[in-house]
Amino acid sequence: MAGLVSPGPGTPPAGKSRLQKAEDTVLRLVFFGLLVGAAVVLGTDARPAIEAARQSLPEVLSPAPTGPVPMPPAEPGDQVRRYSPVAVPDLPQDGPEALPGYVGRPGREALVEAMEFRRGTEGRASAVGRIDVGSASAFAEFLESQGDELQVLVLHSPGGSVRDAIEMARALREKGIATEVPANGYCASSCPLVFAGGTARHVGEPAWVGVHQAFAPGEREGTVADGLAGGQEISAEVLALLVDMGVDAAAWIPAMRTPKDRLYVYRREELDQYGWLAEGEDEAAAAEEQAGISSEEAEASGEPEVRSPN
Fold first, then answer.
1. Kind of pairing between the strands at 80-82 and 69-70
2. Could you identify which of 159, 162, 178, 255 might form a hypothetical disulfide with 4, taking C-beta atoms 3.0 to 4.6 angstroms apart as the criterion?
3. Is 150's pLDDT higher than 60?
């Protein structure tokens, strides 16, 4: 079965020449032009037709960015950003200050290369770059080489193959490894699925964690039938993963509403609300122990324990 991928600019479907693709584009442009013209003549709202044209012809009406993409922090009502897996986001200070296994910043170009795994110190490692078909196999080899020493995987990635991301997430959970998106880090498209696999999950501030629609490429990519079948299959796999990892399935609703050339960036409150953020067992035990100590101290002093409201 073909690998499931988060979409981005790709090659033409197999079997179609560039000339045929250009002819298809011209025909669709003419069709939508006639549709919009008819709507204007009839006095109806032409906006639905224009939006349909934009969705059908993103490479013509909304070209994929190739340079740095502006990525201001998400604000209520302003959370959708442009997206392309081959265009780096314009992050503060060019991204994270330091990642495990890197001397200094990894650099913008690292994001548009195939994902690379590097081991740092104190049980920490980094995963930087695109999640390509085959990245899960490379990650499995990396995990095997680390034995049981790896404790935290730090992510900085524009995403990519959804199926590989799901496999990586399940491998992380099986190994009991935590995940992290560092301050000024970027975890987009299918990257949050890998992040969900962490036994503990932390996101620095500021950081960009975002999702959008995904699809399953096929020989007739782009047809309505393929879109429906692929969308149902991939949605089922993603939702099953999120539920298994303890993330609210509602976290994927913004993804399903966001076109493939856009990115819905979660606000900090949403990351917490949907369960993307999580404490590990050790952290939870430490918090409970600290709460117990506070309770004992309060009882010894004769003062009532102060609790946060639920």
1. unpaired
2. 162
3. yes
275-285 pLDDT, tens digit per residue, is: 999 997 665 55
Q: Render pLDDT for 191-236 as a digit per residue (tens, 0 to 9).
A: 999 999 999 999 999 999 999 998 665 444 455 566 666 678 888 9
- C-alpha 117/C-alpha 87 separation (Å) is 21
Where is 126: in which H helix or E strand? strand 124-128
Residue 95: domain span: 65-282
Dist CA 265 CA 70 (whole Å): 13
The structure's pTM equals 0.72
CATH value at residue 152: 3.90.226.10
| Residue 109 per-residue DSSP state | G
CA 145, 149, 154, 159 torsion-angle sign: positive
Torsion of CA 170, 171, 175, 179, to 10 degrees: -70
Classify 259 as helix, strand or coil.
coil
